[in-house]
Design a protein that fits this description.
With 275 residues, the chain is an all-alpha fold. The chain has 13 helices and no strands. The chain is flat and about 70 Å long.
């Protein structure tokens, strides 16, 4: 076997080892969380940790018995779906407009808003929503979470719209299509995979966001991520129930993250003609 072949084999082994180590590093906390949710409460914080234990559902039973978990889940679903839909409603035409005009500063402005700390928006929003009596409403939560979903939709779709050859749009204009019709009938079908990916990512980020839901919600609209905070007390923390709640909260984003990979691999070809 030649030296080049040996070198390639070692490089493949090293790459595989790096991927395995990275996977273990990323997944270890998640695996520990899931396992802890099935441990008896006294074993969750035991030291040294117990690796062999008798699985139990007492943490999940306590979670559903002591909290209106399904109501919190419904609240999370309403807020997340609403903010994702709002992000898609405004983000798709915004990304298309930026790509069409080649004027990038509106997209950069939304990205700057996304990168800014949430506390920068929280106080003004709290004062504004309190003045108009919207604290604790779904509308306030959906509007605040749109700051998270809108930039994601715009920046995921921008490369997709940019990848469509301009000749496709020019041909449509020659045929008499308006800009709105070009977006609806031509551009959006070509970037369908990008829309799916942006929707899933927006859903995941909105579902997991904690700060706005904690401050702007009330007992009727509290989301799962904010309700999990109730298990952390001043004197003691219900670690078993907290691990069970965290496992159930993480389940939808994990499922959707798997869907993102499928869409990325089998996504539609962007562009109808070759450049």
């Amino acid at each position: 076997m030649s030296d080049a072949a040996n070198t390639d084999r070692w490089i493949r082994w090293l790459n595989t080892l790096q991927l395995v180590l990275a996977g273990l590093l990323i997944m270890a906390p998640t695996v520990w969380m899931v396992l802890s949710s099935f441990k008896p409460s006294f074993e969750v914080t035991a030291y040294p940790p117990t690796l062999i234990f008798s699985p139990t559902l007492e943490n999940y039973d306590e979670l559903t018995r002591t909290t209106p978990f399904l109501s919190y889940a419904l609240n999370s679903l309403i807020v997340t779906v609403g903010s994702t839909a709002l992000g898609l409603l405004f983000g798709i035409p915004a990304a298309f407009a930026v790509s069409w005009t080649r004027i990038s500063w509106p997209a950069i402005l939304t990205l700057a808003a996304r990168m800014a700390p949430g506390t920068l928006f929280l106080l003004p929003w709290y004062v504004m929503f309190r003045q108009i009596g919207m604290i604790g409403s779904y509308t306030a939560l959906i509007l605040s979470h749109a700051v998270i979903t809108l930039p994601i939709v715009i920046w995921v779709l921008l490369p997709s719209f940019d990848a469509i050859p301009r000749s496709v749009f020019e041909a449509a204009q020659v045929d008499g299509c308006s800009v709105t019709r070009i977006l609806w009938r031509i551009a959006m079908p070509l970037v369908a995979s990008g829309i799916a990916v942006s929707a899933i990512l927006a859903f995941v980020f909105s579902w997991n966001y904690f700060l706005f839901a904690l401050v702007l919600s009330n007992g009727d609209t509290k989301t799962l991520i904010a309700a999990a905070f109730n298990f952390i007390g001043e004197g003691s923390t219900q670690w078993g129930a907290l691990m069970a709640a965290a496992t159930l909260i993480a389940l939808p984003p994990l499922v959707l993250a798997a869907l993102v990979q499928r869409w990325l691999v089998s996504g539609l070809t962007l562009g109808a003609v070759k450049g």
